[in-house]
Amino acid sequence: MTTNRACVWVGARKVEVQERPIPAVGEGDVLVEVISTGICGSDCHNWESDKISKQLILGHESAGIIKEVGKGVTDRVIGQRVAIEPGFACMTCEFCLRGNPNICSNLKYCGLDPTDGTLCQYVACRASMTVPIPENISWEEAGAIQPLAIAVQLARRAALNSHHTLAIFGCGPLGLLILAVAKAYGVRKVVMFDIEQSRADFAVKYGAHAGIVPPQRGESQEPLAFAQEYATSLHKELGVGSGFDVTVEASGAEVCAQMAICLLKNGGTCIQAGLGKPLTSVPLFLLTARELNIKGTVRYTPGCYADAIDLLSRGLIDLKPLITSTYPLTKCVEAFEAQHARKDIKIVIMNQE
Ligand SMILES: [Zn+2]
Ligand SMILES: [Zn+2]
């Protein structure tokens, strides 16, 4: 333990490898030797921006080995394999006290300015932020436990069950992880949408019942009529009766948000997971007329990490097909260029290499 190489965001489209001090281990903390870290769309969003208050270590999807346990820690041991929860919730605000630290009003989050992330060799955090992982989960897969936990949280918000039909807009990593969780939960039919044929095809290879590139709306077509007509034709084509039980908008596109509502059956639930433009127009009157639900979802709640790890260790979910590249931390510049080029599905960085 002599170096703490870190991938640091220093300006627009610029990261560099810097040497940082090995963090001190306070009471109740553990020191984790980070082995793998997934790169996330939000890391890349930071990377592209120039709104930077300090040189920030990026990364928040990490796993590693406990190297040191602080005073008072009785339930973690040196050598233990763990995933790291990246949110520092205050545990005293009204939301934390009600069991929702994901919407903590004082939340600090790894890799989110000004809190340094986990794309480095050593991280110190509260012992309770580490979740043990069994030997049969590879380090590459361990680097994608955090986004899988987010998909588990989404399934909780939707109360997904095996009798449901599900439509997902967006075949990026989040959409595919939601597909994986839905399949593991035995959801009856999962249909995926994307604007790129190759991504829609991949979703089918990964277990979706159908992968569809929706048609473009013509200039003369009114947006709502277009969405409703398309929904009606799809319901017939896909054999989902009068609509889907659950739809997920994971693309952020306005037209997808409109379709995700129109595709629902009466009483159905749309989960908004994509971050689109701040003001999006959706057919709210349908919520009243057909008693629909729209729910947001953000991060994960207590137990989502453990559930994600359980799904992986029991072999109900295989993340390996999604991890299309790994890079050593020393090549993080190339890794961010590759993430930006969007040719990979999931990139994982090996922090010690
Ligand atoms: Zn992420
Ligand atoms: Zn709080």
Please tell me about this protein's structure.
It is a single chain. With 353 residues, the protein is of the alpha/beta class. It folds into two domains: 5-144 and 319-350, Quinone Oxidoreductase, Chain A, domain 1 (Alpha-Beta Complex), CATH 3.90.180; 148-296, NAD(P)-binding Rossmann-like Domain (Rossmann fold, 3-Layer(aba) Sandwich). Helices cover 29% and strands 26% of the residues. It contains eleven helices and 18 strands. Strands 3, 5, 6, 9, 10, 17 and 18 form a seven-stranded mixed sheet that branches. Strands 13-12-11-14-15-16 form a six-stranded parallel sheet, sandwiched between helices. Helix 4 crosses helix 10 (304-313). The longest helix has 16 residues, at 223-238. The chain is globular, with a radius of gyration of 21 Å. Its cofactor is Zn(2+). Residues 11-349 form the Enoyl reductase (ER) domain. GO terms for molecular function: D-xylulose reductase activity; L-iditol 2-dehydrogenase (NAD+) activity; zinc ion binding. Belongs to the zinc-containing alcohol dehydrogenase family. Pathway: Carbohydrate degradation; L-arabinose degradation via L-arabinitol; D-xylulose 5-phosphate from L-arabinose (fungal route): step 4/5.
Short account of what is shown:
The chain contains 11 helices and 18 strands.
